[in-house]
Amino acid sequence: MTRIRRTLVLAAALAAVSSAAWAGPVSLKSNPVDDDGRVTLGDIFDGAGAAAEVVVAQRVGPSVVIEAGQLQAQARQAGLDWTNPNGLRRVAVRRSTGPVSAAAAQTDLQASAPQNRPVYRPAGGGQQVIARNDMVRVTYQVGGVNLSIMGKAMRNAALGEPVAVLNTASNRVIDAVASGPGQAVAGPAADRVRANPQQFAAR
Questions:
Q1: Average pLDDT of each block of 10 consecutive residues along the chain (203 residues)?
Q2: CA-based diameter of the chain, in Å?
Q3: How many CB atoms lie under 10 A from the CB of residue 179?
Q4: Where is the Flagella basal body P-ring formation protein FlgA SAF domain (predicted)?
Q5: Distance between CA 85 and CA 115 in Å, rounded?
Q6: Whole-structure pTM over 0.70, yes or no?
Q7: Which helix H or strand E contains 44, and what residues bound it?
């Protein structure tokens, strides 16, 4: 009986090692979507293969956000290897049917922000336009959706300087760039403000 037990334990250990050794590399899809509320590894990754039908989350609204570390662990358990090369904190999966909603666009933007961000210095001559706890209007464009929300500045910011803005409705922090008094932008427009803040100051 003891010999049989040892054999079973050894077989299980070998199977675990074999599974880890043969973990297949996968890449995150550029726009993960699902169509039935059951979010699977195949909805999120290219090259999921036999693990494509493994369910990792349930979506009850227009989108669901999954912690990147949790997703990485679930993928590994299913025999997939996702290295998270962009250092994502969260991954958002949207409903595949119908137009992209403003709420989904906002969630996607916040979820895909990398954990380690470069530090930018203001090029606007140190002209402070936002003070900590100011109410700030953040505007950005994602997937053809123009979105504008009000939030509370988490720090002082000069023109062209990054500023974290707390969306008081969702309690999420948005990374933006100060573009004027009480104004900030996120997305592609943020790069333009950083590159030429004086252009926005003249408005």
A1: 53 44 75 89 92 91 86 92 87 72 50 43 62 87 72 89 84 85 83 68 46
A2: 84
A3: 31
A4: 104-183
A5: 11
A6: no
A7: helix 41-44
The boundaries of the domain holding residue 54 are: 23-98
Residue where a domain stops, chosen among 81, 98, 115: 98
Domain identity same for 140 and 81: no
66: CATH: 3.10.129.70
* DSSP one-letter code for 203: -
Overall domain count for the chain:
2
145: left (phi over 0), alpha (psi -120 to 50) or beta: beta
Lookup result for tokens 């109410």:
135
- Please give the full DSSP string across 100-128, using - where no structure is assigned: PPHHHHHHHHHHT-BSSPPP----STT-E
**CB distance 159 to 127 below 8 Å:** yes
